[in-house]
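To whoever is on call:

I kicked off a structure prediction for a single chain this morning and the downstream step that reads the tokens threw a length-mismatch warning. I double-checked the sequence; it's 583 residues and nothing unusual in it as far as I can see. Pasting both halves so you can look.
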Amino acid sequence: INAESWGPQQAVTDSIFDAVMTSIQATLQASIQGAGITEEAGYDLVENIVKDWSRKHVHFTRFLEKTLRELKYMTTFSIPTAQKPIPQATAHVYFTLSEIHKATPHISYRFENDCLQFSDPMSLGPYKYEVWLDRIIDDKLLVRNLLDLTTDFEKVRLSRDGIVAGQPDTVPVVAEETTQNDENADNESSTAITEQDIEGLKQRLHEIFDAADKDGSGSLDLAELSAILESSALGLSDWDVKLILTSADQNDDGLINWQEFVPLAAEVLHTMFAVRRPKESPLIYEPVAEEDIQILFGSETDVVLKAAQEAFDAADITGTGKLKRYQFRSALTSSHAHLTPREINLLIGFLELDEEGYIAFDDFAPLMSRFRIEAVKNAITQAVSGELGQYLFNLFKRFDPEQKGLLHLHEVRDILFNAELLVLSQLQILCLVASAELNEDGLVDFEKFAVEAAESVGEMFNPYMLHERAALVDRQTKSGLDVVPNFDKEEVEYELRQTFQEYDTNNDGFLDFEEFKKCLDGSSMKLSPTEIQMLMAAADVDEDGRVSYDEFVQFGTILLYELKKREILHSASALAAEDPKPQ
């Protein structure tokens, strides 16, 4: 501003100009310095808020940082005692003082690992904060105990009478494994779900979801539930969250009644932690290469994608290339995409909706490849845990109300199709079921099968073996050779169809299950007992006990090919494992 050009009123304007500039400078300086709200003053404001939050927790507040318009603090809560002065878990609350250039700054805060931001300093009511603080601390102790995170120092210094220091009586603890020499053992391993464990998890989940249900409708959508679980103190990965959410029933709008969901989620959570609790000497493997997974399971993924595309196009009557979530789920469920119910729920959970709430098939193809990789990694985690056999036994036992220890082959198949934690493909499950030993009544002793299946999964997903098999497939492919020599898929499909038609006396395209079995036993194709059992397990029996062989022959051909491929690859990788590796 050129004050000299203002003429005869220069003295007056100079005075006004100086006053304005002084005011501007003072305002800027006040903004930078916080208009009197110093770090110490902000500390006092935070302390004044938290001083009445709890009657049993002790706390201290620490200054974190200062920006142009904000001051940030963290208050830590714990419950130390004279006997246990070092708490094993603490709860943090983060405070932000904004608009600090004003006389009264705006104060907001959030609890550790929580999505909710509170603005009203007393929005929860007197001493309701204790519940939130206890939840955070208990969740940390829960994960600590279930995953056995106690350090050697803590075991020596912080335990008394076999009880881990700092562990409240209300925190669920997984029972210790019993030994074979313990005459009083009840043969329940650490995967056994106790009522105390489930109730503890229910209470925590109920508090988390209740706080997020702002309108009190009792419903949350998948995105909200996913964000809440991921931000909780339970240490869940994205895959873990999706596994839990597949237990939820959604309405057509994608909303979930969280009160109905809590008991199911609590059971899945507990089982997940129990199965993954490490053994004293766990096996250590190198991470499996994603390229190996793609080489081994790429053809299976291609089969699924082709069938899923056909199902999607049939449901997309408007030709937009998009479907609602429930429409795509229905299409996959009713199609022959060869996906298990568990796989469908997980895939739908991973798919992201566009702004209008639709799913595009173009997003499904890359997701399917990524999903198969994550599913294999999850299977490796379960296989090396050492608890998979007990988990499967407990799973089968749920469906044996008469406690006979026996299940039908199709019952075993369906239980594995819907297993909460072991997410295998249809082909992988059918290969497992094909090896199950049947008694004279055609039933499976599931206690014996659980042990054998766990061993088979361990062999199936051994990372070193996976790499050897992938290398063999890659060499054969680059040489222009098939892993399974002399397997003509068109010829096998034709012979299967001819075999079925010989037994279809009324030419209606159906065989009852007994005829279906006789047909396979008497086939000129010289099928092995394992091949016959896998085809029987794969057959979908309708309400009248019949099998539509016309729909089955193509899938049956794929199954026979995959079983032979698996047998060849497993034999080759086993031989490679026996050979000494070059130094």
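Update from on-call: the warning came from a stale cache, not from the record. Cleared it. Sanity check on the structure: The chain is about 50% helix and 10% strand.
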